[in-house]
Design a protein that fits this description.
There is one protein chain. The protein is mostly helical. It has one domain. Helices cover 78% and strands 0% of the residues. Helix 2 runs antiparallel to helix 3.
């Protein structure tokens, strides 16, 4: 039964990755019409690097840490797949940075910090076993890495 859930999560993440490639292309074309100073190819490349590069890096980070201590990967309650949350947050923050420009980074940094706080607060009342804090720190690290990729992707979208 467990293998079936793992397989369906992987299939979900792969199909979500494909959907976000399509969204990234459509967004790059739409933003080019709305904001003529943005180059569509750089915007598309920035979104791809942010969404998919961040997904690969956070997956590898989770894989390494869960190999180090398998109890970190165990969850007691069903949850939203982390790949979906990561795809959405990287996509949105990359697009916001790309459209708003590098001058607005202090404000976007505050939004990113607030988003991390909301994500951690939503998971705060989960089980109180020995590893709940370790999983919380792991979620914080993954969130920081994910938003770093959004920042880099957003800066790439501004290249001329």
């Amino acid at each position: 039964m467990k293998n079936k859930n793992i397989r369906s999560d992987k299939q979900f993440c792969l199909s979500a990755a494909f959907i976000f490639v399509v969204f990234a292309y459509l967004a790059s074309q739409g933003v080019a019409v709305i904001c003529p100073n943005i180059v569509p190819n750089w915007f598309f490349l920035g979104l791809l690097l942010s969404v998919h590069g961040g997904a690969i890096f956070t997956f590898l980070l989770n894989f390494i840490l869960e190999k180090y201590d398998p109890r970190l990967g165990k969850k007691n309650k069903p949850n939203v797949p982390s790949c979906l949350t990561g795809f959405i947050e990287r996509f949105i923050f990359t697009a916001v940075i790309g459209v708003a420009g590098a001058a607005s980074l202090p404000y976007i940094g505050a939004l990113m910090s607030g988003w991390l706080g909301l994500k951690l607060a939503a998971n705060w009342q989960q089980s109180r076993d020995d590893f709940s804090r370790a999983r919380g720190i792991l979620a914080l690290i993954n969130g920081l890495v994910s938003l770093f990729f959004a920042l880099i992707g957003g800066l790439i979208t501004n290249l001329k």
